[in-house]
Write a structure and sequence with these properties.
Domain Polymerase/histidinol phosphatase N-terminal: 84-161
InterPro entries: DUF3604, Pol/His_phosphatase_N, Pol/histidinol_Pase-like, TAT_signal
Organism: Phytohabitans flavus
Strand content: 25-35%
Number of domains: 1
CATH topology: TIM Barrel
Protein name: Polymerase/histidinol phosphatase N-terminal domain-containing protein
Largest sheet: 16 strands, mixed
Oligomer: single chain
Order of helices and strands: HHEEEHEHEEHEHEEHEEHEEEEEEEEEEE
CATH class: Alpha Beta
Shape: globular
Number of strands: 22
Length: 423
């Protein structure tokens, strides 16, 4: 398979069906199936309900689940953490499950914000039809519960070579007949000012969004770059076959996305898989408008751990923001907590800066779960205009490592959204 690693075959859609052999569970009721998954995947985590600081020890499908961290940041005020999964599939494209069950499953699993994003392909082959698009909207409206649970309709623009882009908050959708290239999709998107979009599993498809070719007019609406998709960390995606890290390629091209994690679920147990990607969003309230505002502000972090809280500031500027400086000693405060289950757990924070093929790590800070890390790093815009923090578990290896000895060859737990240096 020239052009990318053979080990990346496992990224293609069908792998979702391999997690639990289909023939073994086709007759198992949903709750029993979740119990099987919980037994296989370790205890499921349920986060606190919106508006409460913590949740009691709970049982789901007979499995005790921890509450996760409290929803209030230790370093900023005025927003609350919500747990989100903005990338999910159903039988309306290439998923296994009925769309009618998806939102309820995600709410039951402890998510606060959830989106259905079935594929938009060419002429609805293995993808959304106009009727299914309306159905997705009806299901999202029925499941939406302002203040408690936000249900969102979206779609995944799907080009077999250039890659896939999620779009949310538009009244219509674009398949390949309406937008045949990334550039034409950006033009379509800029005609819908409320629409928001994300680069999905970046680098899985060889064209990589015309190699992240930059479109200034669409920059603000491209609010996401998936750093965790399913169980994979994308920091070194394609590196071993000579490609640039998608994080480096995207940010160096001029895009300014927040960083996200998603399950990209194709099965029938939406929200219940521990270890798959998810996002944290810092919202003023749990409503669609406030969720979209948080996405626009890049008040997001990527993780693949449920119940995790991450917030970070740089010289008082929240992640996703701009540092109006060319050269400065930048003081970072980083709040990382997963609640009692991780009490005392050693964690590590890596300060990522632009490199040529992979990020350059300019500082590594040891911390522990529940602490606020406080450290200062000198940053110079001449070395590149962005900085990202990666939180890792130093006791576990990265399943897809980068160059020998790279500090990010340990297990990625979370990524903050970037800050941009803008003198």
């Amino acid at each position: 398979m020239s052009g990318f690693d053979s080990h990346h075959c496992h990224h293609h859609h069908d792998d979702a069906r391999d997690e639990v052999p289909y023939g073994q569970v086709s007759f198992v009721p949903a709750m029993a199936r979740r119990a099987l998954l919980a037994g296989a995947g370790g205890a499921l985590m349920l986060a606190a309900l919106p508006g409460t600081a913590r949740a009691a020890q709970t049982k789901v499908a007979g499995v005790a689940t921890a509450a996760g961290a409290a929803r209030a940041s230790k370093i900023t005020q005025g927003t609350t953490l919500v747990h989100a999964d903005m990338h999910n599939h159903t039988v309306m494209s290439d998923g296994d499950g009925s769309a009618a069950n998806a939102f309820a499953s995600m709410r039951e699993a402890g998510l606060d914000v959830a989106a259905l994003t079935d594929h938009a392909t060419l002429f609805a082959i293995e993808g959304l039809s106009s009727g299914e698009w309306r159905t997705t909207g009806d299901l999202a409206n029925a499941a939406n519960d302002p203040g408690q649970f936000t249900a969102i309709r979206g779609f995944e623009w799907s080009h077999p070579l250039q890659g896939h882009i999620n779009v949310w908050n538009t009244s219509d959708f674009a398949d390949l007949a309406r937008a045949s290239s990334p550039g034409s999709l950006y033009s379509w998107l800029t005609g819908r000012p409320g629409g928001l979009a994300s680069f999905n599993h970046p680098g899985r498809e060889a064209g990589r969004f015309s190699n992240f070719s930059f479109n200034a007019s669409a920059r603000n609406q491209l609010v996401g770059l998936e750093m965790f998709n399913r169980t994979d960390d994308y920091i070194f995606e394609g590196w071993s076959s000579g490609m640039t890290s998608p994080l480096v390629a995207c940010l160096n091209a001029g895009w300014r996305p927040g960083l996200t994690g998603v399950t990209d679920e194709h099965g029938t147990t939406w929200g219940f898989h521990e270890g798959k990607g998810r996002s944290g969003l810092w919202v003023t309230e749990n409503t669609r408008d406030a969720v979209f505002a948080a996405m626009l502000a890049r008040r997001s972090f990527a993780t693949r751990v449920s119940g995790l809280r991450v917030d970070a500031t740089a010289n008082g500027v929240r992640m996703g923001g701009v540092l109006n400086t060319a050269v400065a000693d930048v003081r970072f405060l980083v709040d990382v907590d997963r609640g009692p289950e991780w009490d005392g757990k050693p964690l590590r924070i890596q300060v990522l800066r632009p490199g040529t093929s992979v990020p350059t790590v300019v500082n590594v800070v040891d911390t522990v779960n529940g602490a606020v890390a406080d450290f200062t790093v000198r940053l110079n815009a001449a070395d590149g205009n962005w900085v990202v923090l990666r939180v890792s578990d130093p006791a576990v290896a990265n399943g897809t490592p980068g160059p020998a000895g790279h500090p990010c060859n340990d297990f990625g737990v979370a990524y903050t959204s970037p800050w941009w240096l803008q003198p």
